[in-house]
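Predict the 3D structure for this chain.
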Amino acid sequence: MNDLAPLLTPEGRALLDEVRDTDPAQELAVATRLRREHPAELVSAALGQARLRQRAVAKFGAEDAGRMFFTPNGVEQSTRASVAAYRARRMAEAGITSVADLCCGIGGDAIALARAGIRVLAVDRDPQTAAAARANADALGLSGLVEVREADVTDVDTAGFDAVFVDPARRGGRGRIFDPEAYSPPLSWAVSAARRAPRGAALKVAPGIPHEAVPEDAEAEWISDGGDVKEAVLWFGTEPGAIRATLLPGPRTLLSRGLPDPQVRPPGRYLYEPDGAVIRAHLVAEVADEVGGGLLDATIAYVTADALHPTSYATAYEITDHLPFNVKKLKALLRERQVGILTVKKRGSAVEPEELRKKVRPQGPHAATVFLTRVAGAPAMLIGHPA
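Done. Predicted structure below.
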């Protein structure tokens, strides 16, 4: 059922409450029972919405997800609440009081902006998506700050707003879209809209955006949450040309200092694995400088150093062994040390972790981490554990 309206009726809301915690394995039995008292389509819609809400808990938390309304695409493509809250906080701290949220989806960013005290015009051209955004603003008590409009964003006049936020569609019929000009709307249109905003703008883009595609008058920020890279943001009206990596929770922000590439050096006692946002932002040199290290290989984002230095931007491991890549030697070493809990990390290696784990068949009470990588161009294995 594509129309959310029946779920917003008293009967629909009561049914949503009733099926809230339905186990997927029990759906058929629950549906059969409920269809004796409610229309079949309404029961199916309520159970479908319950499934979407359960999936949305990871992004929105149990309390909000249990009250919001979702579409399948909305769950997949909406911004994680922690990331949206961080971005909204940046806007509020910049003195922005009103934002045109273009391509608003189911309203995740509009919700975060409104909770930061910012007035929002949320626009999406898809009727079902716009209806979900409107229902969500109402469900969370934010309708006084959020106006939802069903329209093509390219037709919307944003002149009355301090800033714009644009989240172009980056998926098509064949999956992810990597060319920024193939976004909907294209990145060039979003940049033009950003430059017209009086107080600034934020454009959400894929974290794999080429650095050369970043406009000179924009700040580029890569954001990770819990170690997973979530997105990149192009900011206008902040620090033109700045490059930063921001790690959540925190936030902890590393700014580019324009350092040259680190020198390649032999493996030291410690290996540092930079956060994905740091790597995407090309700030590995800043991490290497912070820990007094160099690279294992000129093309690999692993930093090595002789001493342990605390850093918020990389995970440190103490390395006990450095060997040329050889499965038999690795298997023998792990057996000798009774390693049964094996974490396999790779960078610059064609070997798949699961494939390696099957071949070495770790057994025993101890744990270890093996890095499959290159050292000065040669395939290598580094074995160690978190420092």
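The first strand starts at residue 98 and ends at 102.
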